[in-house]
Amino acid sequence: MIEMRTILLIVLTLVGLNSGSALQAQSNVTLSFNADWRLMLGEQENAQRMDLDDSEWKSVTLPHAWNEDDAFSKPIHEHSTGIAWYRKTFELPDNAPVDKVFLEFEGLRFGAEFYLNGEWIARHENGVMAVGLDISKYLKKGKNVLAIRTDNRWDYKEKATNFVFQWNDKNFNANYGGIPKNVWIHFKNNLYQTLPLYFNLKTTGTYVYAKDIDVAKRRLNLHVETEVANESGAVKNGNWQIRVYDAEGKLVKSFDKKFTIAAETKSMLSSQALLQEVNFWNWGYGYLYTVESSLSIDNKQIDSRKIKTGFRKTAFKDGMLYLNNQVIMAKGYAQRTSNEWPGVGLSVAPWLSDFSNQLMVESNANMVRWMHVSPWKQDVESCDRVGLMQMLPAGDAEKDVEGRRWEQRTELMRDVIIYYRNNPSVILYESGNESISEQHMAEMKAIRDQYDPYGGRAIGSREMLDSKLAEYGGEMLYINKSAKHPLIATEYMRDEALRKYWDEHTYPYHPEGKGPLYKGNDASDYNRNQDQFAAEAVRRWYEYWRVRPGTGKRVSSGGLNIIFSDSNTHYRGEENYRRSGEVDAMRIPKDAFFAHQVMWDGWVDPDPKGMHIVGHWNYDAGTVKDVLVVSAGDKVELFLNNKKLGTAQQSNRFLFTFPAVQFEAGELKAVSYDAKGVKLSEQTLKTAGLPSQIKLKLLHGANGIYADGNDMVMAEVEVLDENGQRCPTVNPMIDFSFAGPIDWIGGIAQGPNNYIGSTALPAEAGINRVLLRTQFGKPGTVSVKAMSNGLKADSLSFQISDIEQQGAYFQKASSENLPSYMGRGDGLGIGPLNVVRTSLPIASVTSGANQQKAQASIDDNELTDWVNDGKIENAWISYKLEKKSLIDEIDMKLNNFRSKVFPLAIYVDDQKVFDGTTTTSLGYWNAQFPAVEGSTVKIQLKGDTEGKSENQHAEIGGKKLDDGVARNDAGSTGTLSIIEIDLYKRN
Question: Can you list the alpha helix ranges (DSSP code H) found in 426-524?
Fold first, then answer.
């Protein structure tokens, strides 16, 4: 964590302890400021005045979006907007070290006006990032009143310029208004280390980074820089102490340095030391150190900050991403930044952020790209703990902008970098969700270089395929290769599927492409059932995997699937939310989750033991259906009640289809083998019996359940047969009841208002989940019961622990001591990259027309191409190799790769090695043939090209997808255009 949060673990006794004495004992203190707020919707005259009676206002505990109930009950463009006032009355602790008092708001939506004791003190308007307030001179002895006017209207305009903010967008930025993120209060002396809050405070805090990293020898040079402000009125001389603690809290390094700071100035202190026996942060290995930076005068500590961070080595070169000296192919999700849950939005307990983000890692994702706007601190720190790399944006929509709107983006990027530069999971800074100009890229890079020059983080943008400055690039829905900066698909696979629809043979029946509620606007080309959603996940990923690192000089560095969890943004079907998630909104996995788990279980190539049988094995007698198995093995066999079935049809490397299997109750077993016939793994599906009972399971944070008004529990309900096996094809209504100091949030299911807030909802496919939230300052016992007609009911109970509370402040225990996930191990020493084919260097190019453009087909720039003159006789191009070689494989990106097929003949010297028609793709068409030795390769168009309508390559709503270079020759028939070609010899 960036701030000094372990201070919150000071043991305070509620009875008989003066809050001031506890604070006075500390050099400085950071406490939660979330408790005991008042909320009023609408414009309120004189709402900032101290003497206003707010006793009738709603009592809330932050973080709290005033329209949280809108989450999944309304589509994004109908989210409630307007003015909302928040007020908090508090008293300063007696005798506290309050020379300086700061408030840290992790984020507000969208614009906010701050008043303290009736006086206007600041305005914050970007709707995304944290803001700090120095309230020292506005405070009074005794009662203080903080009032905040928030405005989350979609057309909110910056007060000084009247410009809207580009990222306040109804398409992607779910509008949870007010104060949906945490607030902290910092008590400091007049000599202090600043906070990483540049906007308003103009301070940069502490920067921890490593240089000279030697992964093999497990050592590095640790550097610490901290900005110190001296507002004491006198020169200060003292000692700066740095202490480094490992994940178990053991002191592993300490070093000191003397300092002298002039009065009324800010100074940057810097120091370094060798750190040995380092445990490196890695994918699925959230190893974190605590770096404590303290200031002392006359051996008395006067200021201390503790920073949670981790150390890892990165590189971005040869078209690939390196983590701790090993090539890692980006595999993961483009997740909506709101990362929301039904009925509450983004304002969830910290353990739920870990629960969700760790699920990504458990699906074997290694990267998350937060979409369009920067996430809140809770999600960033969660990714640190679970070992999930982040692609971190600042804020934008989907185009470059100029003037003040561009300045807004650069200012936001500055604040993002300063705030998150100590978080090891941040690997990539995203400057735009669409390509930006080279001048703008230079400006963004300069901001990174100024504030985070040594963090090992690349900065780039979507596309940037021809950029000389961007350090990475990528696209949305198609594949690029590169030999220089890594290219990562920033979002792919827009298909959708509700979890409740298994297939066309299971009630409620859902044939591929059309749900039972289909009315012509349900995005039929994308509206899948579970079987087909999983199969499509395999088909889409295969094209990226086929051109992975190790497949030549130019490679794809990976892809991020949009999205991980069903999201209340950009809906396109009967439901008012996006159904593209590999898990639903309550994070219950769909079959595509397990498909990715198989394909992604490795740094580049997957563990061959991975396997998953798609679907269930509960059907009506006489049902005949295809059985799908996702496997990383080379061969799969299927057995039904120990009888071997037919041979699988393998496609897209990982998908094994057993056609026309007739259902028979019992056990369906899949067994996978390697190429030599050695057994790798097996998995079974068993037919469940009739529904008999309900089973409740309690899910909560590993650090306990606390009465802080923000902690939550999740109750999972399953419908089981008499043997305790889930019944996967039933959807009974579950009635919940509860008692004790807790508030109901609920869950989601298909039906009226998506059942948001309801205490009765169906267990879809035999399972569902609901959320409940603790009440501030109310510990006690809670019981939850679940019932359904004809089934044995179940109940559970749990204890809510008290919190340590001091007036307006309290120790926010639910955010403390959450454990790191280290389930994948340290990830070191996994072995060299598996190189499966070798690129053959090309010496020269000759073409039948437009010779001046011929070199563009091999220039490693996928925004340029060679194209003939439209005449069939000139539709050829020839490549001369640097030296004679065996050749047996070719990759080509042809213009209109989504929408056209080309009849081609390919020659090696004078020998024809291919005669046929290409297929549409997400980028690259591949030709393989028996190895032929030669010096030249000629590609020739044999006849007219043909347009194809491919559903999987069509966007919804009429938006034209990228289909190659920006030239309108899709309707031409005698045109051959090659964007890039690669010639190979397989190893």
Answer: 438-451
